[in-house]
Amino acid sequence: MSVSDKTLMPKDISRPKAVLSPIDSLAPLPAPYHDVGAEPGFRAMKPACAEEHCASLDGFVALDGLRRPQSKKEEDEFVRAFVSGVSKIFADSNNNFLQPLHLTMDYCAKCNTCSESCHIFASSNGNEVYRPIFRSDILRRICKKHLTASGRLLGGFVGADIDVNWESIARLGELAYRCNLCRRCAQTCPLGLDNGMIAREIRKVFSQEMGIAPTPIHSKGSMIQLKTGSSTGLSKGALLDTLEFIEEDTEEKTGRKIKFPIDKKGADVLLVHNAGEFLSWPDNPAAFAILFDEAGVDWTLSSDMLGYDGVNYGVWYDDAQARKIALGQFAAARKLGVRRIVVGECGHAHKASAVSADRMAFAEDKVPVESCIPVLADLMQSGRLKFDPSKNDFPVTLHDPCNIVRQMGIVEPQRTILRAICPQFREMATPGVDNYCCGGGSGFALMNSYNFSDFRNKVSARMKFTQIINAFADEFENPDIIKCVCAPCSNCKGTIRGVFEFFEATAQYNVHYSGLVELMVNALASMSRPYLTFEPEL
Amino acid sequence: MVVATLVSVCVIAAMACFLLITAVKARRLKNLPLHSRLELYPVPKEGGGRAKYGGSYFEEVEWWAKPRSIDKVSETREILMEMLFIRKLFQNQRSLWWASWGFHLGIYVMFAWTALLVVHAFWAPAALSWLATAVGVLGFVTATLGALLLLLRRAFDKTLRKYTTPQEYFNIVFILSVLLSGIYCWSAIASPFAVANGVLHFSGQDLPWQVVIHVALLCAMLVYIPLSKMSHYIGKFFSFHKVLWENDPNLPGSHVDQRMHAATSRRPQTSWSAVHVNPPKTTEE
Ligand code: SF4
Ligand code: SF4
Q1: A114 CA from centroid of ligand 2 (Å)
Q2: Could you tell me which chain B residue has the CA closest to the CA of A189?
Q3: Phi and psi dihedrals of A357, rounded to 5?
Q4: Per residue in A130-182, pLDDT tens?
Q5: Interface test with chain A among B28, B46, B56, B59, by most A beta carbons within 10 Å
Q6: Are residue A422 and residue A305 in the same domain, yes or no?
Q7: Which of A43, A373, B225, B258 might form a disulfide with A451, Cβ 3.0–4.6 angstroms?
Q8: Which residues pair with A300 in a beta bridge?
Q9: C-alpha B7: how far from its chain's center?
Q10: Which three-class secondary structure string do you get for A338-391?
Q11: How far apart are CA B60 and CA B74, in angstroms?
């Protein structure tokens, strides 16, 4: 714990200091990584970049679009815009969050029950700025001071004690991106309050009012998706080429011929992937094609604008972006006349289209949305897919993506599948709805500006890496045993890939990750060759 | 005589204020617009045994075409466990639970004591006197001990101290002053039965000044609690029932569908300023 942590209080957010609360201690990882000192350290920000953005919270920069004002006038405008944005989260411009927001802002008992549940707070050995209520209380105190009569009249007595200036606002903006929005803290709150939701409201103030958001999720994310159809920038033409390539590659590698059905009008199922799968993990959409074809599902992909990328980064930081993308996705499904949308292995795409977007459109303008996981379990249980579990006879554990499990309640179907097809399946500690985030939630998986990936690999993903190591216990250090983490979510896979690279876990200990469908195809009785080759990542 | 009548009026008015402000606050929260879904599992009303492990209707293929299985018993049990035992605090922070539960239990018991005093003012068998006395002693002791422990914890726990505002200390001290003055009055100055009897029958009998001060503090507290953050008994209902456990889908003809259609007549008047956000049309446009 840094010296400042011991005394650091919410009002210190405006304290002039080069770095308010650097991470100088980390929770130890289990063996063989128990020597924290042997880990690659944090890369320091270059002084010029630190000066240009805000690195004064903890030495990292997530908000690469946030630039230090060059004049008093610019700073005044920055402060004005922030206060205006904060007032708007309590106005009818934020109708769809008013009730939960008021509840969390008004009723926190400061009991501190939520702190221990946060993997970021725990992994940093209790760095005060990562305590779930630290950021909420800063917002609460700012609101008191600037938006309430009691704050103006009674000041510090009611907690209205935070000065708003560039430093405090910019640090708060950065702090909103030190939370994975996993909402594990909300599960433990005796009053049912939600500090993750508050972090997202702060992100909204920055994006919706001030136009400031991390480049990978805004200008190179949701904006690109609205312009080209996919946050990867994959256009319709490029998609079709990619699919053709995947078909050829799959046949070459597995001997199995697949053909992606595209824009099939009136199909039963529109399968929507995270388009990152086509580019980074093409085995995943190919595995879906193998399973759906073998089971005789009447399905299609869409090549229409927004129809082939299920991601919706708006759910992490901006309601307006989330709504535009969700409505576009529903429109693409309606245009094809499909009966249902089935979301592939992407956690936030699941929650975005099935939960967050549920009340963005009228019921008659939507197409029913469901997760691929119960669909796959049903295909297996109904006997339409036959498996030979001996093909998966290696240790497998399961990561529960927060969006699919804690935030949607899909817990058992993936376990039903894994128990049937993986003889050495074992749970991680605290599985199911009590899981820990992979550390890449809410956009972290994509955010690599400056030294931010160090924060992800060493801090936010630390708890998950600990759980993975512990799940394999003695087998972890044996490179002769293949070990696999099943992570049915693109962002989680991306994060786990990064951590495995960072700690050289695959290279040294033969530990891998995979989606659920790849494991299913690997165990499919009809497959003549192994689907999973467990080659090291290049 | 005048003072005693005033006390009678104040007590009744304070109780009415407590109920009225509570109702107004609850109504205000209830009338906030339909919010985006923010459910968090386990959702105890999920039927078919799903509540136990945190499952939901999303686990079923074509969930929208199937009847929903709602487990009201599980939901009621869960909220009762939270209200009566503060289970989440018990599970996640046992050391604070003892003080907090003692305090809240004491408050509940004090409500029962108040009800018994009211009954006793109109019907007073000896057994009721004994029962009311026992309940009163239990309520005062547990609430006072709980409040004292909470105050000490807040004052000496380094983390809690950082986040507690002076007003939040004031809230506990205020409640403690009511409890301690009550203990002093009812054990050394006057009989609570006689005072309750006098107040409720507007008998105008003279009241000792210590009792007048205690009752004045009590009345102020009854008005202050629903106005302050201590009204979390209202908030807790909404944060569980209407946010974390509210997972009703927006299906055609559902209550969500109806509320969404009804909301279209009220267009937002405030809009966001970032260029990428399309501001909603104003009425002038
Ligand atoms: S939502 Fe998750 S990451 Fe954010 S404060 Fe809560 S537990 Fe921590
Ligand atoms: S557990 Fe809930 S009430 Fe307690 S400090 Fe955390 S958010 Fe506040």
Answers
A1: 6
A2: B88
A3: -85, -5
A4: 999 999 999 999 999 999 999 999 999 999 999 899 999 999 999 999 999 99
A5: B59
A6: yes
A7: A43
A8: A270
A9: 26
A10: CCEEEECCCHHHHHHHHCHHHHCCCHHHCCCEEEHHHHHHHHHHCCCCCECHHH
A11: 20
- A252 and A333 both lie in a single domain: yes
Task: Report if residue A396 sits inside a domain.
Answer: yes
* Span A385-434, pLDDT tens digits: 999 999 999 999 999 999 999 999 999 999 999 999 999 999 999 999 99
More confident residue, A455 or B4: A455
Q: Which ligand is nearest to the CA of A442?
A: 1
Of A189, A190, A356, the CB nearest to B36: A356
Question: For chain B, which residues make up each domain, given as ranges?
Answer: 38-85+233-258
For residue A189, give the nearest of B58, B88, B266 by CB distance. B88
Average pLDDT over residues A288-295: 98
Flag whether A137 is in a domain: yes
A448 to chain B, any CB pair closer than 8 A? The answer is no
Residues A475 and A470: their CA atoms lie apart, in Å, by 10
CA distance B255 to chain A (A): 11
A257, A183: one domain: no
Structure tokens given for A137: 């209380």
Q: Confirm if B143 and B110 have CB atoms less than 8 A apart.
A: yes
The total of other beta-carbon atoms located within 10 Å of residue B55's CB is 26
Beta bridge partners of A212: none
Res. B7: pLDDT tops 90: no
Average pLDDT, chain A: 96
Q: Are residues A416 and A288 in the same domain?
A: yes
> A538 lies in a domain?
no
Q: Can you tell me whether residue A512 is helix, strand or coil? A: strand
Residues A232 and A163 in one domain: no
Residues in B closer than 8 angstroms to A432, CB to CB, are: 53-54
A253 and A130, same domain (yes or no):
no
Give chain B's largest Cα–Cα span.
75
Residues of B in contact with A104 (CB under 8 A): 239
Q: Which of residues 317-336 of A touch B (CB under 8 A)?
A: 318-321
How many C-alpha atoms does B190 have within 13 Å on its Cβ side? 21
Rounded to whole angstroms, the Cα distance separating A175 from A229 reads: 31
In angstroms, what is the span from residue A476 Cα to ligand 1's centroid?
A: 28
Q: Which domain holds residue A64?
A: 10-210
Q: Based on the domain organization, do A258 and A200 belong to the same domain?
A: no
For residues A375 and A122, give the distance between their C-alpha atoms in angstroms, rounded to a whole number: 36
- How many residues can be counted in chain B? 285
Give me the torsion for CA of A72, A77, A78, A81, rounded to 10°: 160
Cβ neighbours around A494 below 10 Å, total: 22
Instruction: Retrieve residue B38's tokens.
Output: 């923010």
Is A506 touching B (CB cutoff 8 A)?
no
How many domains is chain A built from? 2
Say if A261 falls within a structural domain.
yes
**How confident is the model over B139-192, as pLDDT tens digits?**
999 999 999 999 999 999 999 999 999 999 999 999 999 999 999 999 999 999
Nearest alpha-carbon partner for A350 in A334, A332, A326: A326
CA distance A469 to A446: 24
Co-location of A243 and A368 in the same domain: yes
Half-sphere exposure (CA, 13 Å, Cβ side) for B143?
26
Q: Which residues contact B111 (CB under 8 A, 6 or more apart)?
A: none
- Ligand 1: list residues with CB < 6 Å: A 117-118, 120, 132, 179-185, 195-196, 199
Contact between residue A294 and residue A250 where contact means Cβ atoms under 8 Å apart: no
CB nearest B37 (choices: A318, A321, A355): A355
Q: Is the Cβ–Cβ distance between A215 and A449 less than 8 Å?
A: yes
Q: At A76, list the tokens.
A: 């005044």
Taking the Cβ of residue B133 and every Cβ of chain A, the question of whether any pair is shorter than 8 Å is answered with no
